Amino acid sequence: MSEAKGTDATPMHGKDRKQRQNDDFRAVDPAEVPLTTDQGTAVDHTDDALTAGERGPTLMEDFHFREKLTHFDHERIPERVVHARGAGAYGYFYPYESCASFTRAAFLQDPSVHTPVFVRFSTVQGPRGSADTVRDVRGFATKFYTSEGNFDLVGNNFPVFFIQDGIKFPDFVHALKPEPHNEIPTGASAHDTLWDFVSLQPETLHAVMWLMSDRAIPRSYRMMPGFGVHTFRLVDADGRGTFVKFHWTPRLGTHSLVWDEAQECQGRDPDFNRRDLWEAIEAGEYPEYELGVQLVPETDEFAFDFDLLDATKLIPEERVPVRPVGRMVLDRNPDNFFAETEQVAFHTANIVPGIDFTDDPLLQARLFSYLDTQLLRLGGSNFAQLPVNRPLAPVSTDQRDGFHQTAIHRGTSYTKNSLGGGCPAVGGPEGAAFAHHATRVDGAKVRARSASFRDHHSQAALFWHSASAWEKQHIVDAFRFELGKVGAVSVRERVVGELNGVDHALASAVATGVGVPAPPADEAATHKQVSPALSLENAPGDGSIRTRKVAVLVDDGVDAEQVVSVRDVLAAQGAVVEALAPRDGTIAGRDGEPQAVDRSLMTVASVLYDAVYVPGGPGPDAPSAQPNGAVLRFVRDAYRHGKPVAASGSGVAALEALEAPGLRLAEGPGEAVADHGVVSERTEGPVSGDFTRAFSEALAAHR
Ligand code: HDD
Predict the structure, then answer these.
(1) pLDDT tier at 7 (50, 70, 90 boundaries)?
(2) Is 702 a catalytic residue?
(3) CB atoms within 10 A of CB 83
(4) What domains are there in the chain, each with its CATH number?
């Protein structure tokens, strides 16, 4: 990634321009102002309602009681109809250099200008209280508070969508959401209605391939990409348009969980991704993403074998490279989940001069839907006045009144007027106003899908053929899991039939797993193209181990020197190393010295860590020398999930207990052995540099 060229001081916790604006809306410090009513009257007592006699009836007169309960009764607002579960953070964005050659957007001109942002990550299917690590698309929505107004880039972590025309969105979401009669399943796509829809609507196939891949179970919001999905348009100062696809690339690389682990995480820590984001920002490990653009001249609109207006298609990066244009850093957690993360209102039509739409029918539907949904969700038309939604650019409209109006407008509210001095004037300062890009349109009014939208298989096949062997296996396993939960055999068969149009081997492997006949090879399914950029193997990020969580399993008698020698090396590289013991507090090291414990083993599990290390302990004959059940389970789970596992000294017994055929472990003292991410050494005292290096490399390789 290119380095920052910005000259602004990095806005640390608190005081960038958006935060200064938010300061005007923060509630008083309760440490300074004692409890009051909503009217500011101090309250003497809030534990007992006012009654006639100690055991008598409650009195209507108790205004504090009534206000307290009434407000409580009204605390909930409708959750988002999709993307209800999410987590947000503030940060800033700056361009690496001026993008004037293709857009006039002010926030993309000057590297010294840091534009504040708010980002909300989300899952799609589940309600607000659902688990994070479900198989689902992740939302990646960014609000840029630019000097020319708010620009919302409302994207996902997949570059393609399930449908081509927004009129199908209610159908798709009804099929995806829990079934209407029993509201099952929560946060999952493995059910009949979704797959019934998929089997009858083959335009879903490409996005479904992404959904069945490990892309749908990200390790962290900090380790997943974002895509604007649609082809948008950039417009330069001379009014020249260029088609664009937006990409966010995470600095830490794109990494995923494995399915078994993701499922266990749902119980062990349903807030897994949300917590990870929060803790990283609190620890000063600010998530970073590079904004990239794929630019296509307007003259090349028809140069592709798919339609640029079809949101089920991506532009292969090998065909049009992603050009890095800027960086986003998330450096501040919100103060209040409801006020900020819940009330943030994204809208694809929040756009600024220099960026424009295309006729993508999915995008056009979104331009209506987001405003409409906020009106219901946030209770009226004044939601743009909520602090998190407020632009930094001055707002001057003729819109008036309505629920929750907080502005005190003065003067007239119609254009044209003479009584208000003709204000506000239209057009803004010279050339600053948004002007819709003038595109020529002609045609008859029809309800029809363009013939150029008809190919549903070639890019699904492109994704499949670009996957590595293990990615392919995970995709097959995911299809088997999902279809295995579908009751209707006819639906299973139809999905397999559609997959046959993608690749016969894929369809056969899925068919075998779900007990339906494999169809004969489809002669028309000849797609064999590959785009290496689509494989997770080619998204390693900066190769660092920053923020990777390493569990060190300790107990009384542990060789503390070994723990220190490993922890120091990994922590110096930015890893988060935690000592886990059968009990909290301290344990006694081998030399009798107390050793601090970070967490009790009872409160955590292997799935919450990226790697595990078992240091040596007491001599081999001591009763506590054999790893106990909890340690063995921890190590076995990590190994099963393909995570780096290391052990030294007598801790190697935990690796021997894996009884993994062919796994090479250190045999004698003085030799560090690394085999498939399993690192061992039979030393006493500090471990060798080879040992820590091998462990760190295995961690950097993710799995
Ligand atoms: Fe959407 C929310 C992303 C298609 C209608 N969408 C929503 C959010 C994201 C996306 C990230 C959550 C925003 C937040 O955090 O508040 N949606 C997408 C992407 C799409 C897409 C990348 C395809 C390229 N969406 C789409 C269509 C429609 C909608 C076709 C309707 C025609 N989306 C909505 C919505 C939501 C929403 C109903 C629910 C809550 C909200 O808007 O604020 O209006």
Answers:
(1) very low
(2) no
(3) 22
(4) 86-389 (2.40.180.10), 466-526 (1.20.1370.20), 549-700 (3.40.50.880)
What's the mean pLDDT in 511-520?
97
418-436 average pLDDT score: 89
The pLDDT confidence band at residue 8, using thresholds 50, 70 and 90, is: very low
What mean pLDDT is predicted for residues 318-324? 98
Q: Which atom of ligand 1 is nearest to the CA of 139?
A: 11
Would the pLDDT of 154 be above 60? yes
Bond prior to 185 in cis (omega within 30° of 0): yes
Q: How far is the CA of 274 from the centre of ligand 1 (A)?
A: 19
Contacts of 664 by beta carbon, 8 Å cutoff, 6+ apart:
673, 675
Residue 337 CB-density burial (10 A; 0-12 exposed, 13-18 middle, 19+ buried): middle
Q: Are 276 and 221 in contact (CB under 8 A)?
A: yes
| 369, 372, 375, 377, best to mutate for ligand 1 pocket (most atoms within 8 Å of CB) | 369
**The model's pTM:** 0.96
Burial class (CB in 10 A: 0-12, 13-18, 19+), 412: middle
Q: Give the confidence band of 624 by pLDDT, cuts at 50, 70, 90.
A: low
Decide: 644 and 677 in contact? Cβ < 8 Å: yes
Task: State the distance from the centre of ligand 1 to the C-alpha of 82, rounded, in angstroms.
Answer: 7
Q: How far is CA 467 from the centre of its chain?
A: 21
Q: How far is the CA of 250 from the centre of ligand 1 (A)?
A: 22
Question: Is residue 279 a contact partner of residue 315, using CB atoms and an 8 Å limit?
Answer: no
- Tell me which of 77, 81, 82, 357 to substitute to probe ligand 1's pocket, judged by most ligand atoms within 8 Å of the beta carbon: 82
CA 611 centroid distance within chain: 22
Tokens of 97: 């250099």
Residue type at 599?
R
Q: Report the 10 Å Cβ neighbour count for 42.
A: 9
Catalytic residue selected from 156, 157, 333, 350: 156
Ligand 1 atom nearest the C-alpha of 81 is 39
Ligand 1 pocket list (CB less than 6 A)? 80-83, 86, 120, 122, 139, 141, 154-156, 161, 166, 169, 229-230, 311, 344, 346, 362, 365-366, 369-370, 373
Q: Please identify which of the residues 22, 64, 83, 247 carries the catalytic annotation.
A: 83
In this prediction, does ipTM exceed 0.95?
yes
* Shortest-distance Cα residue to atom 42 of ligand 1: 370
Residue type, 621: D
Of 503, 492, 494, 490, the closest CA to residue 457 belongs to: 503
Q: Determine the residue of 370, 374, 383, 386 to mutate for testing ligand 1's pocket, defined as the one with the most ligand atoms within 8 A of the Cβ atom.
A: 370
- Taking the CA of residue 344 as reference, the ligand 1 atom at the shortest distance is 16
Q: How far is CA 644 from the centre of its chain?
A: 24
Q: Is 156 a catalytic residue?
A: yes
CB 436 within 8 A of CB 411: no
Joined tokens for residue 425: 């004037």
Please report, for the chain, how many H helices and E strands are present, in that order: 16, 19
User: Is residue 3's pLDDT more than 70?
Assistant: no
